[in-house]
Design brief:
By secondary structure, the protein is of the alpha/beta class. 44% of the residues lie in helices and 14% in strands. The strands form 3 sheets. Strands 1-2-3-4-5-7-10-11 form an 8-stranded parallel barrel, surrounded by 5 helices. Strands 6-8-9 form a 3-stranded mixed sheet, covered by helices on one side. A two-stranded antiparallel sheet has the order 12-13. The structure holds ligand GBH. Keywords: Carbohydrate metabolism, Cellulose degradation, Glycosidase, Hydrolase, Polysaccharide degradation, Signal.
């Protein structure tokens, strides 16, 4: 009966990782301190009309100065894993060459602070903040950027490789292509999809070279990408909708998963690129062997599903959130995780992002429902055999939500951006209970 089903406890495997995620530009602030160089996001935020209310990440949640108190809060919530990103231009102010000791020192203190509190650091090397000095040389449009990225990655492995159990290379290369180079709503604000696909390839190459760089060290850390994935379904029973759902699956998922995990671009995706598309000549002999070399773990950012009609239009068949692109569908997470295992094998998976925005309120019942439903779906996937080892909700605290500025609050910890006061929301108390019970 339904009553009996409800009584079955949702208990996660022993040592399941309970985490939360952030990214450098969204929380750190201190944009011009201790030798940090500008990134494309500093530049983008200064261009009029780019960001809602003209907001910037100059101060953000001031985490650079308040990290110790933030780590205490993480410990109080019982987190066992914390995903953050490194600001490339804080560590290498012009993106290349000698490291900035003060930049490295900040991340050393952060990692040591986490380890001292029993929290595993999960470190993303690139969460969209390309050093401006490299963008001046074309950034990821320039094939050399893949090498520059691997050099920076290598410097990070040398500095703290042993202490970091999981390195994530890129966060959501798809979003760089879609928003940075197609819609133009993210840095560097270009509208040229063909060029974006070249950028996408160079990002993947950077991923592969960074994996290679880690293999050249002797450490025991694991590495993989963090991909934004969304299962795609036909919106109705027509053949056209089915066909377009497959095309959308190529764009949303296989276009990123196949190169990294199978060492090839999907044939149907490639066939849809123009015969003279620049991405074709951007792919050089040997690239896919580099891109497709073994990964240790796959990071999955999951926000919702995608439904496609017979004309290829996207429609919402489930409720959305304040983020109008988000189709909230917890079962999609189950479908996605089980599909990854079926099509790509038993690679360990960590959910690197999952969450929704709410209003300014401290009471956020919608977020609690969202998290409970998605954790239940994740648990079902584990029961079905998916090697899911940890979960990082997005986000630990309210932060700079890119083009939306400070108008979308994704945190379980509230931040008052005028006083920088932190206060756990109802969802944080709820999550603390989940962690304490190792389940729901
Ligand atoms: C993640 O992106 C990011 O990794 C994280 O930094 C971010 O804060 C979080 O999600 C919440 O947004 O406005 O129609 O142009 C999630 C993937 C990519 C989905 C950008 C929405 C913009 C759609 N997102 N995309 S639109």
């Amino acid at each position: 009966t339904a009553g009996a089903a409800e009584a079955i406890p949702v208990t996660f495997p022993a040592r399941f990782g309970w985490g939360a995620a952030t990214s450098a530009y969204q929380i750190e602030g201190a944009a011009r301190e201790d030798g940090r160089g500008p990134s494309v996001w500093d530049t983008f935020c200064q261009e009029p009309g780019r960001i809602r209310n003209g907001d910037t990440g100059d101060v953000a949640a001031d985490h650079y100065h308040r990290y110790a108190a933030d780590l205490d809060l993480m410990r109080d919530l019982g987190l066992t894993s914390y995903r953050f990103s490194v600001s490339w231009s804080r560590v290498m102010p012009t993106g290349r060459g000698a490291v900035n000791p003060k930049g490295i020192d900040f991340y050393q203190r952060l990692v040591d602070g986490l380890l001292g509190r029993g929290i595993a650091p999960v470190v993303t090397l690139f969460h969209w903040d390309t050093p401006q000095a490299l963008q001046d040389k074309g950034g990821w449009e320039n094939r050399d950027c893949a090498k520059w990225f691997a050099d920076y990655a290598h410097a990070m492995f040398q500095a703290m490789g042993d202490k970091v159990p999981i390195w994530l290379t890129l966060n959501e290369p798809k979003t760089v292509v879609d928003n940075g180079y197609t819609a133009g709503t993210h840095a560097p604000g270009k509208r040229d999809r063909a060029l974006g696909n070249v950028v996408g390839h160079h990002l993947l190459l950077g991923h592969g070279l960074a994996v290679q760089a880690l293999r050249s060290t002797n450490g025991s850390s694991r590495i993989g990408p963090a991909l934004s994935l969304s299962p795609t379904y036909p919106a109705d029973g027509t053949d056209g909708a089915r066909r377009h759902a497959t095309i959308a699956d190529g764009e949303e998922n296989r276009r990123w998963l196949d190169p990294v995990l199978l060492g090839r671009y999907p044939a149907d995706w490639l066939a849809l690129q123009a015969p003279d598309a620049p991405v074709r000549s951007a792919v050089k002999d040997g690239d896919l062997a580099v891109i497709g070399a073994r990964n240790d773990i796959l990071g999955v950012n999951y926000y919702g599903t995608t439904h496609v009609t017979g004309t290829g239009a996207r429609v919402m068949l489930h409720p959305t959130s304040q983020a109008t692109w988000q189709e909230i569908d917890p079962n999609g997470l189950y479908d996605l995780l089980t599909r990854i295992r079926k099509d790509y094998g038993d690679l360990p998976i960590t959910i690197t992002e999952n969450g929704m925005p709410t209003t300014n309120a401290m009471q956020d019942p919608d977020r609690i429902t969202f998290l409970r439903d998605h954790l239940t779906a994740a648990h079902r996937a584990i029961q079905a055999g998916v090697p899911l080892e940890s979960y990082h909700l997005w986000s630990f605290m309210d932060n700079f939500e890119w083009a939306e500025g400070y108008t979308q609050r994704w945190g379980i910890v509230h931040v008052d951006f005028s006083t920088q006061r932190r206060e756990p929301k109802a969802s944080a108390d709820w999550y603390k209970g989940v962690i304490g019970h190792n389940g729901l």
